[in-house]
Design a protein that fits this description.
This protein is mainly α. It has a domain of about 80 residues: Membrane-bound Lytic Murein Transglycosylase D, Chain A (Roll). Helices cover about 40% and strands about 5% of the residues. It has a two-stranded antiparallel sheet. The longest helix has 17 residues. The protein is elongated and about 125 Å long. The N and C termini lie far apart (about 130 Å). About 15% of the residues are buried.
Length: about 130
């Protein structure tokens, strides 16, 4: 009886170890890496906001381009930056930057145009104190 029990244990172990296992769920394909040409007025925050939907992820772009961006506050116009695992944006880049007033090429142009259209407000001049009545 001892050897029959041992054969049963071995058979169970073999079934457990050799049983087909379900394949791990295949995750969605990773987003492709994209090259982004730096335009006048671009900053890493703006680029991250466009491709990732979150400006706080600018360091991902900076770390992917250490040979091109030594100072994250200074980008060279015309440089192609690698944007790793970038999502596909829903709108063209100029439209996005136009909404990001004050940051980016289209946004900067829009801000200056709005400033030009605003009428200048008269600044109150300092009036001399009223003369004392005699």
């Amino acid at each position: 009886m001892g050897s029959a029990r041992m054969i049963g244990v071995v058979a169970v172990l073999m079934l457990v170890l050799l049983a087909p296992r379900p394949l791990p769920a295949v995750s969605a394909a990773a987003a492709p890496d994209i090259l982004h040409e730096v335009l006048p007025g671009d900053c890493l925050h703006l680029i991250a906001g466009y491709y990732y939907g979150d400006t706080r992820l600018w360091e991902r772009i900076w770390k992917a381009n250490p040979h091109l961006v030594r100072n994250p506050n200074v980008l060279t116009v015309g440089t192609y930056l690698l944007v790793p695992e970038a999502g596909s944006p829903a709108e063209p880049y100029p439209d996005f930057t136009a909404r990001a007033i004050g940051c980016g090429p289209a946004g900067a142009g829009r801000v200056s145009a709005e400033r030009a259209e605003k009428p200048t407000e008269a600044t109150p001049s300092k009036a001399s104190p009223p003369a004392k009545a005699r």
